[in-house]
C-alpha cells in the first residue's frame, strides 16, 4: 500500500519569535519578498525593523492587493525577480499565506501566521481566487513551506475569536482522519505539484498522521478553555502555547497527511447559505464536525464530549450559531448536493453517503446542539 506524509522543513514558535525572522532569511540570502496586508505589517513593524537590522537583511514590501489571484501571483513573482529576492515571506492571515505559497512555488518560503484561525500555514496547498474574489482552483506545490514561524506574543494579542475559530478547524481533524483511515481513502500528502499539471499518485495516510490527529483532539479537550482565557487576557501561558501548536501544527499535519472527510465537505456545502458568510471557516467546521458524528452514528458519549468542548470555548453547535435561523428543505438539499459532488472529501467516509443522509444529519445535529444548549441554561 502506498502511503505519504508531508510537513514543513522547520516549525518554530515562541514569545517574540519574530525577532529571529532575519536569521531564517539569512539562511536563503540577503533579501526577502514580504507578502502581507499593510495592517499586519503595522502590528509587527518594530520587530521586523529590529530583525532586519540585527541580521543585515532586507525586506522588500510588495503592496499585496489582498487577493490570491493568478494575476497578483504573477506580479509578485516579477517583483521578486526584479529585486533579486532569495526567499518569500507570507505574513498574516489566509490570503497572504496562500499567495506567498503560490509565489514561492514550493521553494524558499517562510510562513508567519499572525493569527491561529486555521490549519493552512503548514500545508503544501493553496486556494486561488479570481481578482473579484470567486473560487478559481486549488494549487499543490512540490514542498511544504521551508519554515513556519509563529510569534506567540502576536497570537496572544490578536482577537480571541480567531484562536477559537482555529480550535473549530482543529476539532474536525481527528474525526476526519479516523474516517479516512477506516475507509482506506487517499490523503492530500500524496499529491505532487498539481499546479504544473503533475499527475497525482494516490497515497494513504500513515500511522504517524493519525497519531498527530488524535493528539490534536486530546489537546483541545485539555487546554482549549484555558487557552481561550489566556488569549482574552493577551497573555502567553503553556495552555495557549499548546493550543497554538494544536491549531497550526497538529491540525495542519493531521488534515494534510491524515485526510479530510464529511466535516469539511459539508462545510463547503454550507457556504451556499447566505447567513453563514459572516462566520469563520473554523466556526462552521465545529458545527459540521457534529454533523459528521451524527452521520456516522458516533457514540453518545463522544457526541457529548464534543458538545461540551464547543460550549466551553464558545464554538457553534447548531445552525443558529452560524447565522442560519431558518432553512428550507430545498436549501438544505442544495447544501447536501454541493457536499456530495464526486470530488468532495465526503466520499472518504467508510460507507456510501448520499444527499438524503446529509440533510438528515444536518437537521439532527442542529436539534442535538439546540437541546444541549437548552439543558445548560
Ligand atoms: Zn479547515
From TrEMBL:
- Which EC number(s) are documented for this chain? 1.1.1.6
Q: Which organism is it from?
A: Paenibacillus apiarius
Q: Which family does it belong to?
A: Belongs to the iron-containing alcohol dehydrogenase family.
InterPro entries, per the entry: ADH_Fe/GldA, ADH_Fe_CS, Glycerol_DH
Which is a Pfam family this sequence falls into? Fe-ADH
What is the organism lineage in this UniProt record? Bacteria, Bacillati, Bacillota, Bacilli, Bacillales
- Is ATP-binding given among the entry's keywords? no
Metal-binding: is it a keyword of this entry?
yes
Q: Could you tell me which residue ranges the Alcohol dehydrogenase iron-type/glycerol dehydrogenase GldA domain spans?
A: 8-152
**Which keywords, in A-to-Z order, does the entry hold?**
Metal-binding, NAD, Oxidoreductase
**Biochemical pathway:** Polyol metabolism; glycerol fermentation; glycerone phosphate from glycerol (oxidative route): step 1/2
First-tier enzyme category under EC: oxidoreductase
Q: What is this protein called?
A: Glycerol dehydrogenase
**Which reaction is the catalytic activity of this chain?**
glycerol + NAD(+) = dihydroxyacetone + NADH + H(+)
Amino acid at each position: 500500500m502506498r502511503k505519504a506524509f508531508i510537513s514543513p522543513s522547520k516549525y518554530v514558535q515562541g514569545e517574540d519569535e519574530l525577532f529571529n525572522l532575519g536569521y531564517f532569511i539569512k539562511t536563503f540570502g540577503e533579501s526577502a519578498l514580504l507578502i502581507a496586508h499593510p495592517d499586519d505589517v503595522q502590528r509587527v513593524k518594530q520587530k521586523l525593523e529590529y530583525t532586519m537590522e540585527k541580521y543585515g537583511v532586507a525586506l522588500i514590501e510588495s503592496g499585496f492587493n489582498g487577493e490570491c489571484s493568478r494575476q497578483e501571483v504573477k506580479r509578485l513573482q516579477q517583483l521578486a525577480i526584479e529585486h533579486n529576492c532569495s526567499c518569500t515571506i507570507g505574513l498574516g492571515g489566509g490570503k497572504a499565506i496562500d499567495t506567498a505559497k503560490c509565489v514561492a512555488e514550493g521553494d524558499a518560503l517562510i510562513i508567519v501566521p499572525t493569527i491561529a484561525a486555521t490549519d493552512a500555514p503548514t500545508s503544501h496547498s493553496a486556494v486561488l481566487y479570481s481578482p473579484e474574489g470567486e473560487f478559481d482552483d486549488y494549487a499543490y506545490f512540490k514542498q511544504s513551506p521551508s519554515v513556519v514561524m509563529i510569534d506567540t506574543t502576536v497570537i496572544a494579542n490578536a482577537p480571541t475569536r480567531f484562536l477559537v475559530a482555529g480550535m473549530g478547524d482543529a476539532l474536525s481533524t481527528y474525526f476526519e482522519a479516523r474516517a479516512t483511515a477506516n475507509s482506506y481513502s487517499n490523503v492530500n500528502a500524496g499529491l505532487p505539484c498539481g499546479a504544473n499539471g503533475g499527475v497525482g499518485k494516490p497515497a494513504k495516510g500513515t500511522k504517524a498522521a493519525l497519531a498527530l490527529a488524535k493528539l490534536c483532539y486530546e489537546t483541545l479537550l485539555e487546554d482549549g478553555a484555558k487557552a481561550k482565557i489566556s488569549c482574552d487576557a493577551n497573555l502567553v501561558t503553556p495552555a495557549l502555547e499548546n493550543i497554538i501548536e494544536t491549531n497550526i501544527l497538529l491540525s495542519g499535519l493531521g488534515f494534510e497527511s491524515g485526510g479530510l472527510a464529511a466535516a469539511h465537505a459539508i462545510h463547503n456545502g454550507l457556504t451556499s447559505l447566505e447567513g453563514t458568510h459572516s462566520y469563520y471557516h473554523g466556526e462552521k467546521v465545529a458545527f459540521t464536525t457534529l454533523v459528521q458524528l451524527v452521520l456516522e452514528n458516533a457514540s453518545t458519549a463522544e457526541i457529548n464530549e464534543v458538545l461540551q468542548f464547543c460550549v466551553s470555548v464558545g464554538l457553534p453547535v447548531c445552525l443558529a450559531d452560524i447565522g442560519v435561523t431558518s432553512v428550507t428543505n430545498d436549501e438544505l438539499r442544495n447544501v447536501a448536493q454541493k457536499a456530495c459532488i464526486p470530488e468532495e472529501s465526503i466520499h472518504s467516509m467508510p460507507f456510501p453517503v448520499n444527499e438524503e443522509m446529509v440533510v438528515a444529519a444536518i437537521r439532527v445535529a442542529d436539534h442535538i446542539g439546540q437541546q444541549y444548549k437548552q439543558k445548560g441554561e
